Amino acid sequence: MSDNPYSSPEADLVQRGGSGETTLITNVVMDHLRRTRGWVRFVGVLGIIGATFYLLWGIVMLVIGSSTGIDPITGSGSVPYMVGRTLGSIINILFGLLFFYPAMKLWKYGGFIKSLESSYSVRDLEEALNQQRAYWKFTGIMLIISLSLILIGILIVAGNM
Predict the structure, then answer these.
(1) Where does 37-137 show beta strands of DSSP type E?
(2) Each residue of 70-107: pLDDT tens digit?
(3) Between the CA atoms of 132, 137, 140 and 145, what dihedral angle is there, to the nearest 10 degrees?
(4) Beta partners for residue 15, in sequence order
(5) Measured between alpha carbons, how far is 67 from 8 in angstroms, rounded to an integer?
């Protein structure tokens, strides 16, 4: 690096790329992404497994609930029990679908990092970052909704005291 304060900035760049494109990605960026990929894939797989369990549990409970309709506590068939079981099943299915989306975004993010390791293509880097952006946007929106519902619940409970 030069001691001249007026010289152009310098960076440790890797210049590779197929299809004639000029690709400039620093070794530090590649190292950070390479070390992140395993964790991203791990969390993505756990998210997909969790979402699948939510979906399967919701479907099983929906089928069992609609076929038996008998409250295990009272031993009788009651409408509130059927409605509660059906509603709980539908909520599980919805949670499964909600959890599946961010898990897939993480999985795709890890996939584009893997592609980037071999291609050093700016296009792969852009797509990886786009998948990460979509994950965080969805997570932020769900956080806002969750906090709003908690606040509404607190206000309802406080209003009934």
Answers:
(1) none
(2) 655 566 666 666 777 788 889 999 999 999 999 999 99
(3) -140
(4) 24
(5) 74
The domain spans of the chain are 13-159
Residue-wise pLDDT tens digits, 101-141: 999 999 999 999 999 999 988 999 999 999 999 999 999 99
Question: How far apart, in whole angstroms, are the C-alpha atoms of residue 64 and residue 66?
Answer: 6
Beta carbons of 117 and 30 less than 8 angstroms apart: yes
Handedness of CA 89, 94, 95, 99 (dihedral sign): positive
Chain centroid to Cα 160, Å, comes to: 36
Angle at 98 between CA 96 and CA 103, to 5 degrees: 90
